[in-house]
């Protein structure tokens, strides 16, 4: 019998037929949270490695005719996690799953979205091709680094947004948010911060940066006024954190009273933890698209707040709209945490 969802979230739509959710190795906690909200148990799957490092996946239950969702974020050992996801997709597809959706909260290789120098690869397009070839019928992701990646696919892509959750966090946690300035650490994030600033009815600024090489910033120029204001840096990802930490110093030099950083994807690789511990901002706030428990223990400034658990709600909404459309029923009114039109 199909599992049921809690009536508080679903109302009269108590059944969720033919849905199975499997988790890869990257973020089992997020997959469990999604299943808890959907009122179902995670699918049985065993993931392991052979002694030579090859991934091995065993799907532990029938998926014939089922609508399968596989949750796997692009974090930590990114290449292994990607390969594991591809194998899981293919295993479900050749086991006669009706449809396979890949839930990839943090999309791997998203920064390699264009040919910006001679002989450079467009790796994000290659990943898109690999996912389609493996058998994915649908992609669900969150805050793509470059929105044009959606066009790399010939299958449906839902790019969900953390913006509504970020707005709620700012209003709930920064008492003087009306005297704030939303700042983009680079020109590429200007559209993101202007949207947030408009909704809060505050000013925005951006920082123009010149790089010596990847992950190493040479100089920064602040465009905008942050004097005697709280500066809130907003970005889609924080990796080595060189940019955001230098940006915090620049903002304080320009007269900002406090600096916060809010990022969707907290990758935190290389020297990121030590940089955050020595940084000038009040807090580095992230969503749970990537597991953060270990990093939060090593860097007290890293915070995950329930308001930024938006990925669960968005994915939940996408799941259920898919199901209701499939059976020809009206979708219920679920909590909205994204501007994504489903």
TrEMBL record:
It is found in: Cytoplasm. One of its GO terms (cellular component) is cytoplasm. Its EC number is 2.7.6.1. GO terms for molecular function: ATP binding; kinase activity; magnesium ion binding; ribose phosphate diphosphokinase activity. Keywords: ATP-binding, Kinase, Magnesium, Metal-binding, Nucleotide biosynthesis, Nucleotide-binding, Transferase. Pathway: Metabolic intermediate biosynthesis; 5-phospho-alpha-D-ribose 1-diphosphate biosynthesis; 5-phospho-alpha-D-ribose 1-diphosphate from D-ribose 5-phosphate (route I): step 1/1. InterPro entries: PRib_PP_synth_CS, Pribosyltran_N, PRTase-like, PRTase_dom, Rib-P_diPkinase. Homodimer. The active form is probably a hexamer composed of 3 homodimers. This is ribose-phosphate diphosphokinase. The lineage of its organism: Eukaryota, Metazoa, Spiralia, Lophotrochozoa, Mollusca.
């Amino acid at each position: 019998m199909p599992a049921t969802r809690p009536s508080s979230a679903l109302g009269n739509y108590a059944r969720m037929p033919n849905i199975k959710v499997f988790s890869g190795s990257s973020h089992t906690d997020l997959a469990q949270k999604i299943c808890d909200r959907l009122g179902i148990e995670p699918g049985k799957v065993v993931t392991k490695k052979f002694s030579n490092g090859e991934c091995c996946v065993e799907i532990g239950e029938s998926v014939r005719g089922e609508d399968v969702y596989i949750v796997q974020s692009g974090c930590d050992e990114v290449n292994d996690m990607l390969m594991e996801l591809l194998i899981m997709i293919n295993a479900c597809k050749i086991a006669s799953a009706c449809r396979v959706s890949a839930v990839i909260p943090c999309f791997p290789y998203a920064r390699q979205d264009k040919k910006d120098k001679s002989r450079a690869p467009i790796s994000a397009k290659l990943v898109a091709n690999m996912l389609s070839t493996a058998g994915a019928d649908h992609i669900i992701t969150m805050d793509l680094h470059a929105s044009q990646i959606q066009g790399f696919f010939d299958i449906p892509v839902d790019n969900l947004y953390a913006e509504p959750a970020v707005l709620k966090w700012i209003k709930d946690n920064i008492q003087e948010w009306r005297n704030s300035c939303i700042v983009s650490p680079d020109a590429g994030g200007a559209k993101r911060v202007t949207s947030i600033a408009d909704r809060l009815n505050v000013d925005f600024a951006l920082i123009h940066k010149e790089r010596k090489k990847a992950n190493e910033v040479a100089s920064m120029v602040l465009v905008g006024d942050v004097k005697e204001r709280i500066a809130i840096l907003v970005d889609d990802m924080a990796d080595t954190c060189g940019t955001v930490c230098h940006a915090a110093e620049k903002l304080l030099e320009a007269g900002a009273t406090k600096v916060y950083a809010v990022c969707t994807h907290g990758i935190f690789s290389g020297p990121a933890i030590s940089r955050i511990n020595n940084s000038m901002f009040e807090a580095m706030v992230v969503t749970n698209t990537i597991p953060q428990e270990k990093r939060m223990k090593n860097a007290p400034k890293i915070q995950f707040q329930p308001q930024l658990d938006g990925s669960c709600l968005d994915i939940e909404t996408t799941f259920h709209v898919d199901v209701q459309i499939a059976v020809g029923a009206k979708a219920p009114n679920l909590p909205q945490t994204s501007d994504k039109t489903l």
